[in-house]
User: What shape does this take?
Amino acid sequence: MSRDEVTRLEIGSDVQIAGARQAVRQAAVAAGFSLVEQTKIVTAASELARNTLVHGGGGHMELAVVENSGGHGIRLTFTDDGPGIPDVDVALSDGYSTGNGLGLGLGGARRLVQDFTIESRPGGGTTVTAVAWSRMAQRVPR
Amino acid sequence: MTAEAGAGRVSVLRMGDILIAAIQQELTDESALALQQDLTEMAAAGARGVVIEISGVEIVDSFLARVLSEIAAATNMLAGRTVVAGMRPSVAITLVEMGLGLRGLETARSLEDAMAVFRGQAGR
Ligand SMILES: Nc1ncnc2c1ncn2[C@@H]1O[C@H](COP(=O)(O)OP(=O)(O)OP(=O)(O)O)[C@@H](O)[C@H]1O
Ligand SMILES: [Mg+2]
Assistant: This one.
């Protein structure tokens, strides 16, 4: 996968969540991530993909390998047209769930990556972007 | 020893009064829930312990963590124990960093270590 080439995957079923994990794993291997770095970004992807499906009513993931002078990173964008998140800070807090989950997915995913942004408004859908860099790329000042 | 499995399902082996499930491939949410149901039903039919071997599992997210915790809670209620065996170090590191941990779950390094836990209390 060359720089900034974007792959788009539908997130509409639990099988597609598994497919998203597999695609992120392959990209992380290609980007030179260590085993622990791979595991972190794949786990974050799994959390965010499930939120897209369960809370957002389905949507899609965009996957891109990005680059700086130190190495590579992976940028994941999850988009849905669901109900949106009324209060992002509350949603990020540990233990908060409007479903029957542990309420640790969103905050947990944020702790597993270096850059994390949520754009959402009530009724207007949700876009979550997560970027993780390989260890060498993390040393480059941003 | 008996085995129970359908398409895409994790098979559960019974060795005496111990149930063993080895997860060897990535689970979809549906197959994780099917495993939870199988293990809970088989434990209710009589089991002293459940071992879930996860060395083949590449990631544990909050969904799978919750399924594992619920299996353990159910077996505890039925006077048994659940031991999760063989978690990869990369998975353990990630769970800690997420702040997920595996509350209330007993772990063992390997299937062998997990079985030793139950041998130690055989014939209780
Ligand atoms: N894409 C989304 N659209 C709408 N609401 C969302 C979305 N993602 C998260 N949320 C809201 O944020 C809350 C917290 O999300 P989080 O992933 O932390 O917990 P959860 O999904 O409920 O449980 P789990 O611990 O199993 O992930 C959700 O319960 C939901 O209310
Ligand atoms: Mg979630």
About this structure: Chain A touches chain B at residues 14-15, 17-18, 21-22, 25, 35-36, 38-40, 42-43, 46-47, 50, 94, 101-102, 104-105, 107-109, 111-112 (CB under 8 Å). The helical segments of chain A are 14-30, 35-54, 88-92, 105-111, 135-138. Chain A has one domain: 6-137. The mean pLDDT of chain A is 93.
